[in-house]
Amino acid sequence: MPISLAALLAALCSVVRSRADLQLENLALRHQINVLRRSARKRPQLTSRDRFFWACLSGLWRDWRSVLVIVKPETVVAWHRKGFRMFWTWKVRHGQPGRPVVTREIRDLIRKMCRENPGWGAPRIHGELLKLGIDIGETSVSKYMLRCRKPSSQTWRTFLENHVSQLVSVDFFTVPTIRFQVLYVFLVLTHDRRRILHFNVTAHPTAEWTGQQLRNAFPYDKVPCYLLRDRDAIFGNDFREQVRDMGMEEVLSTPRSPRQRAYVERVIGSIRRECLDHVIVFDENSLRRTLASYFDYYHRSRTHLSLRKDTPEPRPVQLPGIGPVVAVPQVGGLHHRYERRAA
Q: Which of 43, 118, 184, 243, CA to CA, is 20 to 30 A from 265?
């Protein structure tokens, strides 16, 4: 008994469905006949009402393509899409705007974040924009992101900046005195902020003396990972053992290749051009005082292109409201530092 009742209900549903389909089919055929009757030309002339009728019928009846004759089904689909656009245009014009327009400034900022952070996705960039007070959707962020075929990777500049704090360079350079004596200056330079950690002067450099200078430069646990140097004979076995005991790894440059130690070579060139070429050195104490004066200027006042025109010890920006500009002589007047001071 339950089975026969279920079959009866299914039959009634099929009859009702078939009757509805039949009525829709008759309606569609009659509409096409009326269009052909009122068209004087061979090609049917369809009005906006006709297009609206078929656009609605395509959404109500799934078999509408089987009875359509006067136009192609793709034409009806195009009518439906056009009506959808017209509907949203009407909503925007009547005070119901859709998605707000993303300004060019925000689009450029999204692309800048993509270039500078290749590992970031749309959620991460969207979070940064929200922290900047920019109200934008995550889908809009993904729309304007840069598409890269290659897998995301950091730039060489980022890679080097992440490791530059673990590198130091050491080197000697010579300075003649007024009595034609040759003095040796030992430098220890860090690569991250171009700071000169330690220097000393001697007339007779030895491996033992050089190792002691290295211990003075890195007290306690402030020891870098890598030490860059040339193949000078002064760095003998005692110096190499000292480096190993301190937990550093030596990186030797190729013979006659100063470019491989460009940072320390450039610093030595700056010391000569900006200081030593303009003074006369009498003895070791005179050279120490001169170099100490120059290094104070070098660290606190001299701007560097590699540091975005900042000093090794960051120098604050003084606004015009502080006062007039005054010149402060440094290195005995060879150079000047300009500051704003209250009157």
A: 243
CATH number for the domain spanning 227: value is 3.30.420.10
The DSSP result for 252-315, as a single string, is EPPTT-GGGGHHHHHHHHHHHHHTGGGS---SHHHHHHHHHHHHHHHHHT--BGGGTSB-SS--
Residue carrying the six token digits 């001299």: 302
pLDDT tens track for 270-327: 999 999 999 999 999 999 999 999 999 999 999 988 888 889 999 888 888 888 889 8
pLDDT of residue 1: 40
Report yes or no: 261 and 171 within 8 Å, Cβ to Cβ. yes
- Asked if residue 7 belongs to a domain, the reply is no
Residues 138 and 166 in one domain: no
Residue-number span of the structural domain to which 61 is assigned: 15-93
User: Taking the model in full, what pTM does it have?
Assistant: 0.59
pLDDT value of position 2: 45
Select from 173, 195, 176, 188 the least CA-distant residue to 258. Answer: 173
- Same domain, residue pair 140 and 170: no
DSSP code of 66?
G
Helices (H), the chain: 2-38, 48-60, 73-93, 104-116, 122-131, 138-144, 156-163, 207-217, 237-245, 262-274, 284-300
